[in-house]
From TrEMBL:
Origin: domain of life: Archaea
Domain CRM: 1-82
Organism: Natrialba aegyptia DSM 13077
GO molecular function: RNA binding
Keywords: RNA-binding
InterPro entries named in the record: RNA-binding_CRM, RNA-binding_domain, YhbY-like_sf
Protein name listed in UniProt: CRM domain-containing protein
Length: 82
């Protein structure tokens, strides 16, 4: 499926994973489980998780950790697909 269609589908998906002060390590297993059950997951990066780094950078790192494709980032929210 192409990225444009995935972005359109992601519009109606709610955020189900929040990355906070515990960082990416704390959500890897949860995100992995969610990606196993559905094809699109939205992840919100809270201020404490960003720590001065761009959301895009954090999102790419997390996507790599769970073997997912980063479809897009908007603001501090990322959409991942597997």
């Amino acid at each position: 499926m192409d990225n444009q269609r995935l972005k359109e589908q992601a519009h109606d998906v709610d955020v189900t994973v929040w990355v906070g002060k515990s960082g990416i390590d704390a959500v890897v297993d949860e995100l992995n489980d969610q990606l196993s059950n559905r094809n699109l997951v939205k992840v919100k990066f809270l201020r404490a998780a960003r720590a001065g780094n761009p959301t895009e950078e954090k999102a790419r790192t997390l996507a790599d950790r769970v073997s997912a494709d980063l479809i897009e980032t908007r603001g501090h929210t990322a959409v991942m697909h597997r």
